[in-house]
């Protein structure tokens, strides 16, 4: 599936394959196969204080899948019409967030590690950092 066919405002859980082994489990991800986009950037958050909030923005074009590789945290999602929450705590399950979705993250557990797979390289012009401006564009 290409980014052009992904509806704006869509959010869903993505389950990745798991290979069981007595020495430990292995999970892998392939852009364009397990994800609805090719991976252009990977970044991760760690050493996040448990009372911190992250996110607080939306993207015009970028799509992401967010994983809790270790520990847990909450994703608060808003597509301009509907608000929802997801708790991420399983490293095999990622939250797909399409373009034009406001996201906030909080309630990080001690030692949580969040990994994000993104469809585009960093571009500040792609961000909505003002919630009211986001709402105006999302509802248009």
From TrEMBL:
Entries under InterPro entries matching the protein: QdtA_cupin_dom, RmlC-like_jellyroll, RmlC_Cupin_sf
Pfam families attached to this UniProt entry: FdtA
Top-level taxon: Bacteria
Residue ranges of domain Sugar 3,4-ketoisomerase QdtA cupin in the record: 11-137
Protein name as it appears in the record: WxcM-like domain-containing protein
Organism listed in the record: Antarcticimicrobium sediminis
